[in-house]
Design brief:
five-stranded antiparallel sheet; four-stranded antiparallel sheet; 10% strand; extended
Length: 651
């Protein structure tokens, strides 16, 4: 039940302090500013206006765009630490004033221009190299030509023709030449798609030859070089070498630009922060002398914010008022989830579904034990759990993994414990049956399925009782019974009914169960009729509510997947072990080791993915649907970027 208590904070100060106040608010990263002009009557805002700063915002965005482009370009050139070193390293921490001072001392425009110049130089060299490569292809084809075409153009009696033709036309062309009988021909080169020919013929035969070969798309050679192809190729390769050396020199120079890279990253942080403060100005209420802002903040962070503003501006220069959240504002209040270190990683499951509303409860601590048990039942292998435990513990101790990735690693680490516990319970170690086990995934499948259904019933009852408690606290007495307590009692009644009829053969238990079901079914109809202005409509709604019993049957059946996935994972692992067992002894301890590692790696990935997905589904569909509506939204305070560095907050 860990939703932070929120307050609405209103701040009034002189216009001259606006920038410093916004900087202090951004530094604390705890206040979500809201547009006050949309919330109060116009006559209360006489003399106040909204500040518009579109041109300034355009400048910030333009500068940000240039900086981001330069950073992206340097990403491919500046030398970076290896993956292991990067995981071990920590981000630098800057105070907001320290960040701004560092960026203001650097000439960011000059750095952007410096990167741009190198980019232009590399682009120019790349284009030249591309042209030389095309030229190289041409020269390599004609390197067998050992005379200059222009040298033979001066012959008086004979004419020399050189050119290429598509391969499919070569045979008819050669036949035409042979039929003439006066033309010498020779093949210069042959490729998969074209062939080059040399023709020597009397000049009086030239017109006839051109007429006869025009139908074959013969392409005469246009040789534009002043040396033989072999010499031109040598010169070409030397030029390519020089260009590559030039490119390598520029890239080597850029690889040492770590300080330039860092300054640009800090500049990205700086201009993003300026842009966010500028956007905040657009939703403030402003005047020539005063400005007014309001927003949502956690109650426990109000004093820190006041202290920081007082330190930057002066306590007497700013008036800060706080108000409690009103009932009609519950849907507008942003949500901050507050849980201990063990529960906190499971907030990601809740956040993927929906944030709770302010008058609801945080379902994370309520869902977490079930999620752990369900995941453990479906993974259920001591070996797999030990691997998950070791990998996550090693990552947390050796590497500096932060943010959402760090939370996910902690989440997996917590899940390794139920995986190991159920691995011992079912006696499974990498698909090998241990000598000790409580239940067997091969022999006790029916009993495991019954346990799965019982656990599902426990979670459903828990969710329904929570529904009743929550709605009763909200003053919805009738709904708390109709949607919560009544259905919980009916499920208990059905359990007693089935147990008395099929398991224990107790008439008394059966009758008690039937009585509980009937009484609460009638209760749903009665309370629906009483709580609805239109009695007939209320009875109809109650009857429709009772029709939902079929959904509960489907919910209960859904929990059998706990058994199904646990058994499937164990049997797949056993099958992999059997496959290796069929190999000869020498193969088992050579190639067999590689195969078994690969197969178990695949099974581990599929097992953990399936356990995660289906555990989440059971929470979202079967559990959350019984008591949790959601629809809230997270707190989005005025904050810094924190993409490349961490901000040193004064909390």
């Amino acid at each position: 039940m860990a939703i932070a208590k929120m307050k609405k904070l209103t701040l009034l100060a002189e216009h001259v302090h606006k920038d410093n106040v916004l900087k202090s608010v951004q530094e604390m990263q705890s206040l979500q500013i809201i547009p006050l002009a949309d919330k109060v009557e116009e006559n209360l805002l006489i003399g106040f206006t909204r500040e518009t700063s579109d041109s300034e915002e355009i400048n910030y965005q333009s500068k940000l765009s240039d900086i981001e482009y330069s950073i992206d370009y340097l990403d491919d050139h500046v030398a970076k630490p290896g993956l292991i070193e990067k995981l071990k390293s920590k981000r630098e921490v800057f105070a907001l004033t320290e960040l701004e001072k560092r960026v203001e001392q650097a000439n960011i425009d000059a750095l952007i221009h410096q990167v741009s110049v190198k980019e232009q130089q590399l682009n120019k060299l790349d284009e030249e190299l591309k042209n030389l490569k095309q030229e190289e292809q041409f020269l390599r084809k004609w390197r067998g030509l050992n005379f200059m075409p222009e040298e033979v153009s001066q012959f008086k009696l004979m004419h020399v023709m050189i050119g290429t033709i598509d391969k499919e036309h070569s045979e008819p062309l050669v036949n035409t030449i042979k039929e003439n009988g006066k033309i010498y021909h020779d093949e210069v080169y042959r490729r998969s798609d074209e062939i080059a020919y040399l023709f020597i013929l009397p000049k009086d035969e030239l017109k006839g030859l051109k007429d006869s070969i025009s139908q074959y798309s013969f392409r005469e050679l246009k040789y534009l070089y002043d040396v033989l192809p072999e010499d031109a190729l040598y010169r070409n390769l030397l030029e390519q070498k020089e260009i590559r050396e030039g490119i390598s020199k520029i890239k080597k120079e850029m690889s040492a630009w770590k300080s330039v890279y860092l300054d640009l990253q800090l500049a990205e942080e700086y201009y993003y922060n300026l842009s966010e403060r500028n956007k905040a100005k657009d939703i403030l209420i402003d005047s020539p002398h005063l400005f007014l802002l309001t927003g949502w903040i956690e109650e426990e962070k109000i004093q820190n914010l006041k202290n920081n503003i007082s330190q930057e501006v002066g306590e007497s220069e700013v008036a800060i008022l706080t108000d409690d959240v009103k009932i009609e504002e519950y849907k507008e209040v942003p949500i901050v989830l507050k849980n201990n270190k063990i529960v906190q990683p499971f907030e990601m499951i809740t956040q993927m579904f929906s944030y709770p509303q302010y008058n609801e409860v945080d379902p994370t601590p309520l869902m977490m034990p079930f999620f752990m048990i369900f995941f453990g039942m479906m993974a259920a292998d001591l070996g797999y759990g030990l691997l998950l435990f070791g990998a996550t513990l090693f990552s947390m101790k050796v590497f500096n993994i932060e943010g959402s990735t760090g939370n996910f690693v902690k989440f997996l680490h917590v899940l390794s414990y139920p995986t190991m516990a159920f691995g011992i319970f079912f006696g499974s170690l990498f698909g090998i049956e241990l000598p000790f086990q409580v239940l067997s995934l091969q022999e006790d499948v029916l009993l495991i399925m019954i346990i799965s259904v019982v656990m599902g019933l426990v979670q459903l009852l828990y969710g329904l009782i929570l529904n009743g408690i929550i709605k009763n606290r909200q003053g919805q007495r009738a709904s708390s019974y109709i949607d919560g307590y009544a259905w919980a009692m009916m499920l208990v009644g059905f359990i007693l009914w089935v147990a008395g009829s099929l398991l224990i053969d107790s008439t008394l238990m059966t009758q008690i169960g039937i009585g509980i079901v009937v009484v609460n079914a009638i209760g749903i109809l009665v309370f629906s009729a009483i709580s609805t202005p239109n009695t007939a409509l209320g009875v109809g709604l109650g009857a429709y509510n009772l029709y939902g019993i079929s959904g509960y049957v489907g919910d209960i059946v859904s929990y059998t997947r706990l058994m199904a996935l646990g058994v499937a994972s164990a049997n797949i692992a056993m099958a992999f072990n059997m496959i290796i067992g069929f190999l000869p002894v020498y193969a088992r301890f050579t190639v067999g080791v590689v195969i078994i590692v690969a197969l178990h790696t695949l099974n581990i990935a599929l097992t953990f993915l399936s356990a995660y997905v289906h555990s989440s589904r059971l929470q979202y569909v079967e559990f959350f649907g019984k008591f949790f509506e959601g629809g809230g939204h997270p707190l989005t305070p005025l904050k810094t970027l924190e993409k490349h560095i961490w901000l040193d907050q004064k909390n």
